Amino acid sequence: MIIYIDITEFVISRINTGIQRVLKEFLQRVILDKHEINIIYFDEHTDNYQLLDNTEVKAFLQEVKTYDFTIFKSIDLYTHSEKDKIFLELDSVWNCFVKRIDLYPKLKQYNFKIVNLIYDLTPILFKKYAKENTKINFPLFLNAVYKYSDFVFFDSLSAEQDFNKLQIKTQSKIKAIPTKVIYLGSDFSSTHSRTNTKYEHLISKKYILFVGTIEPRKNQLLALKAFEEVYKKHTDLHLVFIGKMGWKTQSFNEYLDAHPLKDTNVHHLRDIDDDLLSLFYKSAFLVTYLSKYEGYGLPIAESLQYGNITITSKNSSMYEVGKGFADYLLKNEKNELIHILSLYLDNQNIYDKKKKFIKEKYIPPSWDKFYISFIKELSLI
Questions:
Q1: Across residues 338-363, what is the average pLDDT?
Q2: Where would you tag: which of 71, 155, 246, 302 has the fewest CB atoms within 10 A of its CB?
Q3: Is 24 helix (H, G, I), strand (E, B) or coil?
C-alpha cells in the first residue's frame, strides 16, 4: 500500500491549529511508522506535483511557521502500479489550486483509491460563517467526494450524519460510501516544557480561557459579554482568548479594541505555540468553548485532558466530545453562561469537586489511538 498525501494548503497557510493539527499528528506518526508514503505539494509555477523529502517534512512539522523546503522532485501521479495506491485527503483541500472534481476521476483511471477525512459541513450548513472562497469551493469538493471517494472518515457521529443527510438532499444518484468515525486525540506533541517570560505574569493570574480562531461561529463575543458581568464581582478575574484572527471579525474587533478592560483583564494572544498553549491550559481557572457548530470541537478534549472545568455549547458534536464531564449551554445565551460561571466562582467546594471528578474519571483520547485506528482501517480498504 502506497499512501499519497497532498499537504499543499498546509505548506501555504503555515497554520498549526484545527485541521492542520490533525494532519501534523498523523504525518509525524506515519513517517516514523515506516509506511510507504509520498507526501506531495502542488507547484503552480511548474503546474505539477512535487514529491517532498520525508526528512524535510519532519523538520517542517517542528518549525511550521519558518521552515523552507529545499528538496523537490517531480512526481507523475498518472502511472500504473502493481501496489495498492491510496490518495488520502486530510488537509483543507477544497481550496487547493487543483480542484478535486477534476483530480479524482483522473486518479481513479490509474487505480487510486480516494480516501477522505471530513471534519464538518460548516460551509454548506452554516454558509454565513464561512469564508467567501470556501463557500464556493467546498460544495464542489463535496460533490467530488460523493462521486469518487472510496471511503470517508469522520471525527464525530454528528459530522457523519450531516454528510449522509446532505448526500440524500443534494445527489440525484446515491452512491453507497463506506464510512468510519474515529475521534481525534487531545494530547500535545510538545517538544519541550518551558515558560515564556512574556506571558509568565498572565499565566499566574486567575483566568477563563477560550481557545479557537476568532470568528463569529466560535462565539467569542458571548464569552466576553458574560465576562463583563461576572467581572463586576470578581475583579481579579481575567479572560484570555488564544487563536488566530479569522474572518468576518470586524464587529468583534471593534468591540474588543474599544473595551475598557483590553490588555488589563481581557487579552487576545496569537503567537502561541503548543508548549505555551499547554501551560495556559494547565493554569486556567476554567475553559469556555461556545461554538455554534462543530465537526468535533478539539479544544473541549484538550481542556478536559488537563482536568479543566469546561463550559461549552450543547449542539452538533460537542456532547460527543465532552460527554458527562463538560458543562453545557442549551441555548447559548449570556445568562446561562453567567449562571454557570458564577456557580464555580462563588462556590469553592463545588468547583473543587468538579475538578476532582474530571481528573479522576476523564480518559483523554490520544493521537496514538487515533493513528492506530486510522491505519488499521486504511489497510482494510
A1: 98
A2: 71
A3: helix
Q: Tell me: pLDDT of 58 over 50.
A: yes
Q: Which residues pair with 238 in a beta bridge?
A: 207
**Residue listed under C-alpha cell 463569529:** 216
Nearest to 90 by CA among 62, 59, 118: 118
pLDDT tens for residues 6-36?
Answer: 999 999 999 888 899 999 999 999 999 978 9
Residues 6+ away with beta carbon under 8 Å from 347: none
CB 107 within 8 A of CB 132: no
Domain boundaries, the chain: 2-185+367-380, 200-361
Answer yes or no: same fold for 2-185+367-380 and 200-361.
yes
Sheet bearing 237-242, strands edge to edge: 266-269, 237-242, 206-211, 286-289, 310-313, 327-329
**Cell numbers linked to 225:** 459579554
Given the candidates 3.40.640.10, 3.40.50.720, 3.40.50.460, 3.40.50.2000, the CATH classification of the domain at 2-185+367-380 is: 3.40.50.2000
CB 287 within 8 A of CB 304: no
Give the single-character DSSP code of 240. Answer: E
Instruction: Give dist(CA 6, CA 92) in Å, integer.
Output: 10
Half-sphere exposure for 44 (CA within 13 Å, toward CB): 7
Which residues have C-beta within 8 Å of that of residue 297, sequence separation ≥ 6?
289, 291, 312, 316, 317, 318, 321, 322
Identify the residue whose cell numbers are 512574556.
Answer: 198
Amino acid identity for residue 180 in this structure: K
In three-state secondary structure terms, 286 is strand
Q: CA 196, CA 204: separation in Å to the nearest integer?
A: 12
Sheet holding 112-118, edge to edge: 72-74, 48-52, 37-43, 2-6, 85-89, 112-118, 151-154, 179-181
